[in-house]
Amino acid sequence: MRILVTGVAGQLGHDVVNELASRGHEVTGSDIFEQYNGVQDGSFAVTAPYVRMDITDREAVSSVIAGLCPDAVVHCAAWTAVDAAEDDENFLKVYRINVSGTRHIAEACAACGAKMMYISTDYVFSGQGIVPWDPDCKDYAPLCRYGETKLLGEFAVSSLVEKFFIVRIAWVFGLNGKNFIKTMLNVGRKYPEVRVVNDQIGTPTYTLDLSVLLADMVESDRYGYYHATNEGGYISWYEFTKEIYRQAGLETRVLPVTTEAYGLSRAARPRNSRLDKSKLTDAGFRRLPDWKDALSRYLAEIGEVPGLPG
Questions:
Q1: Are 7 and 74 found together in one domain?
Q2: Beta bridge pairs of residue 172
Q3: Quick one: which of 106, 8, 3 has its CA closest to 58?
Q4: Distance CA 215, CA 73 (A)
Q5: Which residues on neighbouring strands pair with residue 236, listed in sequence order?
Q6: What distance in Å separates the CA atoms of residue 268 and residue 189, rounded to the nearest whole number?
Q7: pLDDT at 189 over 60
Q8: Which residues lie closer than 8 Å to 264 by C-beta, 6 or more apart?
Q9: Cα dihedral 215→221→225→227 (10° resolution)
Q10: Are strands 235-236 and 201-202 parallel, antiparallel or unpaired?
């Protein structure tokens, strides 16, 4: 298959290119930069063909996708700085990336008959209650601008593309870029104790594991809405941090606090980020490994520790 992956300089796009290329697909990576500027690890993401594409430029998107004539587009590019999206001076840019940019790609996919995979988020829901969100639930109520724009991106894909996958993920970590784990490791080495919220519940997602599932999906015709995070049960950010420090061998004390007591976020966060992933099994897809195992492998990947059993 000929496959275009957007956002290849980010955490997920990097791993998706590698996974698809390792399976023998003809993969092209794209991003806003003149040339690939992600981690230089000798991977397919570095050596695969790369094309600059500004997704906010409708004509540029149409030209690139028409020229490549892909069988599928995996759209990983997005504005993901949740708090910064709340700033008025940023909102137009956020909208142009997450909404207009997604619509441009959807239009181009529709024009050439390509499959489209759109990576979305649990932030499209209200984050209330304790029941895991079903992927086909339409009870949308995003709490912040980031969630609003990702939801509008979903609407663009579902309304324009016949063959689409919308895959919602949460709590993402990977090699290429910033994430919660890297932040907490840095903080844990600087301070004897840290405060972490214990009333926001979800499950982490390792991009290396997710890329395998996404490749399985794009090779199929089992279209629709899906939820995908690592297995191992639902946890709080507090519990996640404790396990990060345990596996990394840090003795930093972790103090549980409520969202209100933490009080540092400009954007409202969902309390309930539980995602129901049973549809993956129903559709015949393999679920992701346990998140503790994923964390162990990730810490080894970034050179923190050789990896401890989960």
A1: yes
A2: 205
A3: 106
A4: 11
A5: 201
A6: 28
A7: yes
A8: none
A9: -30
A10: antiparallel
- Tell me the percentage of the chain whose pLDDT exceeds 90: 80
Site of tokens 């844990």: 188
pLDDT in tens, 155-177: 999 999 999 999 999 999 998 87
Catalytic positions are 146
Report the DSSP pairing between strands 164-169 and 224-227. parallel
Residues recorded for the chain: 310
Task: For residue 108, give its domain range.
Answer: 2-173+205-231
- Which residues contact residue 149 at a Cβ distance below 8 angstroms, ignoring those fewer than 6 apart? 79, 85, 94, 95, 97, 98, 99
For residues 115 and 79, the answer to whether their CB atoms sit within 8 Å is: no
What's the whole-model pTM score? Answer: 0.93
Confidence of residue 310 (pLDDT cuts 50, 70, 90): very low
The domain that holds 214 is classified in CATH as 3.40.50.720
Are 120 and 166 in contact, with CB atoms under 8 Å apart?
yes
Across the strands, what pairs with 290?
231
Mark whether 136 and 189 lie in a shared domain: no
Residue 189: exposure state from Cβ atoms within 10 A (0-12, 13-18, ≥19):
exposed
